[in-house]
Amino acid sequence: MTLTQSLLVIGLLIAASAFFSMAEISLAAARRLRLRQMADEGDARADRVLRLQEQPGDYFTVVQVGQNAVAILGGIVGEGALSPHFTALAGLWLSDGSAQNIGFLASFLVITSLFILFSDLFPKRLGMAEPESLVVRLAQPMVFLMTVLRPLVWFYSKGADALFRLLGLSSLRDDRITSDDILAMMEAGARAGVLAAREQQVITNVFELDTRMVSSAMSPRDRIAFFLRDEPDAVIRLRIAAEPFSTYPVCEGDIDHVVGYVDAKDLFQRVLNNQPISLADDSLVRKVLIVPDRLTLSEVLEQFRQVHEDFAVIVNEYSLVVGVVTLNDVMSTVMGDLVGPADEEQIVRRDENSWLIDGVTPVEDVLHALGLDELPHNDEYETLAGFLMVMLRRVPRRTDSVSWGGYKFEVLDVDSFRIDQVMVSRLKPAPLDSGSAEHPAAPAAH
């Protein structure tokens, strides 16, 4: 075989090896969601690739048979084609034995470098960059090779299956997509600039609806504006003017005996028509949705959907009212700071190292603002005020503080045992001396 023929054969072997490399990496890297979208758009090749991904054993067997066969042939052809020329060149300066060694080594390095660059690195990088578009083109030739090499494929596949069974491993690809996978993709998209940071936060908030309790979004008991059923017209009008809301619970005797609710639109309509307002009128008081305080926000949304309501009263296990929640409250939790006036923010960042936080702020929001993973005893409370009570083991007073995870939580204002404002400051790391250090997450209560 002449040098030209040998180089042509080597080029064909490199092309064959590149084909198998691209076929392997593109099938492994192809995203099922993208392939499913292509199949739904009418691309039958994408549907074939999806089936191959479900049972990829025969496919990868053909890849390995092809790559190893090409590598062996490349070594044989390359050594026979290039070694004599490198040996002759080295013989001009070296002895015959040394020239043969140098010729073999040079031939080996050249052939190996060509295969690494053109049949491995370049095709695999190309396959990683455009996996779906490549795999749909390469799938049909690979299916043809799987048919032609069926006996070899069967032999090696059965051997691989036996090894999997012996080791107790599964050879099936797990294509389940979890919420963590989606959140990771959203984070990657935000870092790449494809997804805005606020859009990423909205998606994260949606997934948190299954874990956040309704109490994290409700208006607490002490902030509820309600009417007693026997209150006169003048009192009702004054309360509407003093506390304008869209919905008011209607109670019998006290707040813990809710009999319904009244919509502000109905009240305003009566005012505009110069009609008296009497909550004894059953046509004015609507049936109210009562939900327990242990529901998650997603469960509350489902309750709203079932009864076609957007307002609910929340009660605890003792049937005492602990708060009210509206559909707007839940959606505000999802949208975050994209909605709502600035003066209603529960977390205000004062500077780089300090925050002013309302005591009723849900723990999840506090963790997100401070960049913490969790707070201690997190199953015993749902708000920042609850965290301070658990850590102090008593009702906090002004100037009480708790240090945890590199932050100091200091109570600034308490109103009738309710924690109004908490100053959170980032602690400076303590200097290390004599080989001892305070654990950065060690709690300290004052």
UniProtKB/TrEMBL annotation:
Cross-referenced Pfam families: CBS (PF00571), CNNM (PF01595), CorC_HlyC (PF03471)
Domain of life: Bacteria
Gene3D superfamilies (UniProt xref): 3.30.465.10, CBS-domain
Primary site of residence: membrane
Subcellular location: Cell inner membrane
Keyword Transmembrane helix: yes
A GO cellular component annotation in the UniProt record: plasma membrane
Keywords for the protein's UniProt record, in alphabetical order: CBS domain, Cell inner membrane, Cell membrane, Membrane, Repeat, Transmembrane, Transmembrane helix, Transport
Spans traversing the lipid bilayer: 102-122, 134-156
UniProt topology in membrane: Multi-pass membrane protein
SMART domains in UniProt: CorC_HlyC
Domain CBS: residue ranges: 284-344
Positions of the CNNM transmembrane domain: 1-199
Function: Involved in cadaverine and putrescine tolerance in stationary phase. May facilitate the efflux of both cadaverine and putrescine from the cytoplasm, reducing potentially toxic levels under certain stress conditions.
UniProt record similarity statement: Belongs to the UPF0053 family. PaeA subfamily.
Protein name according to UniProt: Polyamine export protein
